[in-house]
Amino acid sequence: MAKKKLVIADMITVGELAAQLDLPLTKLIGELFKNGIMATVNQRIDFETALIIVEELGLDVELEKKDSTSMMSPSTRSERALSDKAQKRPPIVAVMGHVDHGKTSLLDAVLDTKVVSGEAGGITQHIAAYQTTYNGRSITLLDTPGHEAFSALRQHGAALTDVVVIVIAADDGVKPQTIEAIKFAQQANAKIVVAINKVDKPEADTNRVKTQLATDYKLVPEEWGGDTVMVEVSAKTKENLDKLLELVLLVSDLEELKADTDIPAEGLVIESHMEQGRGAVVSLLVEQGLINQGNYIVAGNSYGKVRTLLNFAGQPLKEAGPSTPATVTGFKELPQFGDRFSIYANEKTARQAAETHRLQHKQDVQATNISSTELLSMMTKRREKQLVNIIVKADVQGSLTSVTDALRLLESNELALRVIGSGVGNISENDIRLAASSEAVVYGFNVQLPPAVKRLAWQEKVSVRIFKIIYELIDDAKAVLTELLSPEVVETEVGKLVIKGVFRVTKEEVICGGEVTKGKIMPGLLARVFRNKEQIAEVEVKGVQRERQEAKEVFEGEMCGLQLKTQGRLNVEEGDKFEFFKRELVKRTL
After folding, report:
1. CA quadruple 513, 517, 518, 520: dihedral positive or negative?
2. Are 199 and 239 in contact (CB under 8 A)?
3. pLDDT at 576
C-alpha cells in the first residue's frame, strides 16, 4: 500500500501539522514533550523537524516540502528594476580582513584621518562608513572589524557592497578572518580586490600571499593569468594607494553601477546609538532615492522625522543620495543594526508601517521556531544544563549584536547562557535590580557605570564587568563559565604488582607482600584487585615497605610489603594481581 503524501510549507505550526496528519493535538504535543520540547499549538517547526516527528510516531505518511519564495533577509540588498532615469552612483567598497592586518590604517592613509588611534586596543569594533573623492569621483568606504567575535558585522558589510577590498599583511599571510572575509564577499557576489599591505616591512613576502590565495582559494593574480586584481600597498608609506583607488574604480565601472534618485529612499541601518541631547543617532547607507531633512523614515519597528542630516564627518547635508553614508537624528526609538529603512509620505503612513513591523516581530517571537538540529540535540541530550544569566549593555547596536552572539558561542553541553536583558546605553539601576533578582552577571561594552548605579550594584552584590575591547570581555566570560564546570575525574595508571604472600587480614586492613611487575608503587595510591582477570575489589595503599623499612617508592622488579586499607573484609590470595593508579579531579576549561 502506497504511503499517504502530504505537502507542507517549510515552516508549519504544531496545530496545523496535527490537523494535516489527522492526529489529536495532544498526541503530537506529547511526542514533542518526550523529546524535550515544551511545545504550544502556535509554535512553529521546520520541515525537517516534521519529518523526524512523523518517523518517531511511525506514521505511514510521506511529507513533501511546498515550493515557496523566501522573504528577503534584512541584510540582503534589494534588487530593484532600474528606470531609464537611473544615474551612475559611487561604488560601495568594504575593507575586510584579519585583525591587525592594517584595514583601518589603510583607510586612515586614504582619508588622511586617524581613526585607529580612537579604537580600543587598535582594532575596529563597529562598522564605520566614510566617503572620499579620487579623480573627481566619490567612493564610499566601509571599515569592518577583523576580530572573530564580529562575524555578524562583517557579514553585513559584505552584503552591502559592490567591491570588497581584502587586506592581507605581507608579513603574516592568509589568516582565519581573511578566509571568512573571502567567503562573505563570494556569497554576496561582490567583486574582490586584494590589497597586500605592509610591503614596507623587511619580512614582507608578497609571493607567499599570492601563492596561498591562488592554490587554496582560487584567487589567481592577473599577472599570473588569473582574474583577481591584487595591489601591493603600504599604509605607512602610502605606496600604491593611488593605484588601489584607480583599480577599485575600474572594477566597479565594469559593473555599471546605477540607482534611481526620484523614488522614496531606502537602504540599511549600519549603526545606531543613544546620545544625551540628541536622542537616537542612526548611521544609514542609502541604496536608492534621496533622503532630505524633514522626511518621515521607518527602520524596522522604529519611525521618526529626519531632524538632522549629516555626512560621515558630522557636516550638514542638503540631501543624501545613493551610496551615501549619512547620520540622522529624529527616530522615536533606536532601530536595530541591520534593519532596512524606507522613506514615507507622512507621519501617519510611517507610524502604520512601523506598527506593522512591530506586530510581525511580536508574532515571530511568540511562535518560536524549532529547527531539526535543535530537536535532534534535545533528543540526544542526557545531562541537565547549568544556566548562567547575563545582562549585556553596549554603546551601539552593532556591538550589542556581536557581543551577545560571541557570548552564546561559549555554551557547552553543560552550560547554557541566557541573555535576560540587553540594550544600548550606560548601565542603569533597572539593569542592576534585574541582575539582583535573577542572579545575573552584567557585562558592559564601551559604556559607563554611573556612581549611583555602582553603589546600588555594591549593595545588591551584583557583579558588573565593563570592557572596551571585545576579546577581553569574551575571555572574562569564558573564565566565569569555566569556574562553573564540574571537575573531571582523571585516572592515571602508575604500576602493577603480583601478590607473593599474605600476612594478615582484618575487617579493614590487609598486610601482604609481592613483586612489582610494572612502573612503581608508593603510599597514597589506589589499587584494583584482580583474580583470574576479574576485579574483586578496590583498595587504598596506606604504607609501603622494602626490606622491612618504610619506603617512599618501590620500582619494577623489586619485592615489597603493602599495608592496604579495605572496605570490609578482603581475602587476598597469592597470585592476585594489583593495578595501582592515581585518581585526581582536574579543572576543565571551555
Report:
1. positive
2. yes
3. 93
List Cβ neighbours of 501 (8 Å cut-off, separation of 6 or more): 512, 513, 514, 574
In a domain, 84, yes or no: no
- Whether 73 is in a domain gets the answer no
Instruction: Provide the grid cell at 213.
Output: 590565495
Is it the case that residue 83 has pLDDT exceeding 60? yes
Q: Is there a single domain that holds both residue 168 and residue 221?
A: yes
The answer to whether the CB of 271 falls within 8 A of the CB of 335 is no
What is the span of the domain harbouring residue 95? 90-256
Q: Are residues 569 and 457 in the same domain?
A: no
* pLDDT given for residue 16 in this prediction: 78
Residue at 261 is within a domain:
no
Q: Do 397 and 304 belong together in one domain? A: no
pLDDT score at 153: 45
Q: What angle do CA 316, 109, 201 make, to 5 degrees?
A: 165
More confident residue, 455 or 380: 455
Give residue 285's pLDDT: 87
Residue 222, judged by CB atoms within 10 A of its CB (0-12, 13-18, 19+), counts as exposed
pTM of the prediction?
A: 0.57
The dihedral through the CA atoms of 341, 344, 346, 350 has a sign that is negative
d(CA 105, CA 112): 10
Q: Which residues is 264 bridged to in the sheet? A: 290
Q: Is the dihedral of CA 317, 319, 325, 330 positive or negative?
A: positive
User: CA–CA separation, 39 vs 53, rounded Å?
Assistant: 13
